Structures are given as C-alpha cells and as structure tokens.
Amino acid sequence: MSTIKVAILGFGTVGEGIYRILKEKKNEIKSQTGFTIEISSIVVRDVTKKRIETPGVKITDSIHDVFENPDIGLIFEAIIGEDPAFTYLSKAISKGINVITANKAMFAKHGPALIKLAKSHHVKIGFEATTAGGVPIIRTLENLLKADQVRRIQGILNGTSNFILTKMRQDNVPFEVALEEAQSKGYAEADPSDDIGGKDAFRKLMILSDLAFGRQPKWDDIAVNGIDKIHASDVLTATEKGLRYRHIADISIDEDGTPSGSVGPVVIGSDHPLYGVDGVDNAIIVDTEYLGALTLIGPGAGMYPTASAMVSDFLHIVGKREKILIPS
Ligand code: NAP
Ligand code: HSE
C-alpha cells in the first residue's frame, strides 16, 4: 500500500479543518484511493500559538522544512493573502508537487499563471474551496463547459455578508453584533473588511469568470460595493415591504466575448431565485446556452465546508472515487 506525504500551509479555521478530516477519514481515504495519507508538516506564522494536538507532525514557521523533504507529494494551502502564498505554490509546482488552495485573494490574481505552470509541470492544482466554500461550483462548471457555454453567472458569493443580512432581518440585531458572530464562527476573514466591503465576492467572481469565459474583465470596470453601509433599519424597512437585501455578484458575456458585471447589495422580492437563501449559505445561478439555468446552494464558509471541498479536490487528484467527507 502506498503512502502519500502532504503538508498543510496555515493552521487557522481552514487548515485545522483539513487536518481533522484527513485524520478522522484516514481509513476511508485509504480504501477509496489506495493511499495512506501522512501529514508531514504544518506551516504557520507563529509556532508559539496554542493549538490542537497534532502528534507526529512538525509545526514550523519555515517553508524550507516542506521543500527540503523530497517525499512531499501534495500541499494544502490555507494561508492569508497574495504572498507568500503565490511564491510558495509556484515553487511547489515547479518541484512537481500537487497543490490545493483555498486562498481566493491569491488565486483571483495568480490563478491563470499557476494553472499554466501546473500544466507545464504535469502536476494538478485544486481550487474548489476558493469560491463559495463547500458548494462544488468549480467542478460543476468544468463539467458543464465540456458541452455547453456559460452566458451568465450570478450569486451570493460571500457567506459573511449573507449571514449578517440574515441575522439583521431574522433577529433584528445591529450590524456589528452580526459581524462578531460571523467572526466567532470562522466565516469572516481575519480582517473582515473585504467580506463586508464586497472585495471577497468580487475575487470569487473573477475566478468564475476565468473559468467560465476564459478571461476576466478589467478589474476597474467592475463596480464593487459591500453591505457595510446597510443598517438594521434599512433591513427592517425592506422586510416590512416583503423585500430582502442580498449581496449579489453578477457577470455575463456579450456577443464579442467580453465579460462585464457588478458586485453589490440588491433588494429583491419573493419571485427572485435568491430570496430564500439565508445564513452562511451561498448560491450560484449559472445560465448556459443549452442547459438553461442551474442553481447550486450550500454553505459558503466555515471550517468543515471549506476543508471538505479541499479534501474533495485531494480525492479527485489522487483517488479513484470522489466523495465529500464531513466528519459526524
Ligand atoms: P485564519 O483562521 O486566519 O488562519 C490563517 C492561517 O494562516 C494561520 O494559521 C496563520 O498562522 C497562517 N498564516 C498566515 N500567513 C502566513 C504566512 N505568511 N506564512 C505561514 N502561515 C501563515 O484563516 P482561515 O479562515 O483558515 O483562511 C485561510 C485561507 O482560506 C484564506 O486565504 C481564506 O481567504 C481562505 N478561505 C477561508 C474560508 C473560511 O470559511 N474561513 C473559506 C474559504 C477560503 P498563525 O496561526 O501562526 O497565525
Ligand atoms: N470570508 C469568506 C466568506 C470565507 O465569508 O464567504 C469563504 O470564502
């Protein structure tokens, strides 16, 4: 029986989720893929921080510990921001190591370059978790595109924003209180300003644009607004009229193949397909030439949904069969 050695970069909400699933589902992974998975090292910023026990795993603040080990076959990346993540993944790919990332800030900008690099080195790159958390939109689009053309994608792509809007409506709590709860549940980024300011949803939309249309629009051409100027009183007024605030990212392609779109809060009525999507859920409506409209809905953030998407990528890369794994 073969062993595959992996490293995890980042041990916050997502990195810890990956560790937990890989440990808890070790036997299932072995029977599905034929591989025994061994977590060799975990890279963090601060090795003195108190964390869950990880027996037999080296916790390090040096990426060299990963690259000096010639047996590492795959890296899970769940750190913050464009760099050093891009540098680390570029180096990993160049060394023939498969990579799986959740880092949308990095991937929205550098995804096309990493995919190209991965192709040239014959390694695999998984990025399902960059967009819509546990919702399998990336794999769905890849499958759809084999025989169809996407015309438009619209959706709720930020779990924190949808959670806050829902809390304000259902529990009548102030914005700040709802945001604090989103942070404590591990939905929001360490710095939540990109969640509530719309940039996080924008980046995910750019990743989807690359995949669906083969290109991104010019970033400056997209109007990006967040939910940060919406007060509980605005939500109440809308609710009294039978309307709901949703933060919607929208992109479509014109006849010349040019994508254009917008990101921002919209007030919608009960006839809108995103009216009933509450809490941390994300939803994506994909309009295609032949299929028509397909809607995917599910948890858009949080430890297990996100880590599950990454383990699903792992199974896709190394396994014979794929199955979403969520510990009971
Ligand atoms: P987090 O809880 O803040 O954890 C980040 C981890 O990365 C920490 O362990 C931190 O180390 C480590 N780290 C940060 N910069 C580093 C560096 N330069 N070198 C080494 N380690 C570094 O963040 P998270 O929520 O797990 O998110 C991780 C990534 O996944 C982000 O890119 C995020 O956008 C993305 N993501 C998150 C979610 C979610 O629901 N949370 C969903 C999808 C995607 P220390 O522990 O030492 O500080
Ligand atoms: N902060 C992000 C969100 C995490 O709330 O959607 C998932 O990408």
Descriptive notes:
The longest helix has 17 residues, at 104-120. The protein starts with a strand and ends in a 10-residue tail after the last helix. It contains twelve helices and twelve strands. Helix 1 packs across helix 12 (303-318) and helix 5 runs parallel beside helix 10 (199-213). It has two domains: 2-133 and 305-323, NAD(P)-binding Rossmann-like Domain (Rossmann fold, 3-Layer(aba) Sandwich), CATH 3.40.50.720; 137-300, Dihydrodipicolinate Reductase, domain 2 (2-Layer Sandwich), CATH 3.30.360. Strand 5 (98-101), helix 5 (104-120) and strand 6 form a beta-alpha-beta unit. Strands 3-2-1-4-5-6 form a six-stranded parallel β-sheet, sandwiched between helices. Strands 8-10-9-7-11-12 form a six-stranded mixed β-sheet. The protein is 39% helix and 23% strand. The protein is of the alpha/beta class and 328 residues long. The radius of gyration is 20 Å and the shape is globular. L-homoserine (HSE) binds next to helix 7.
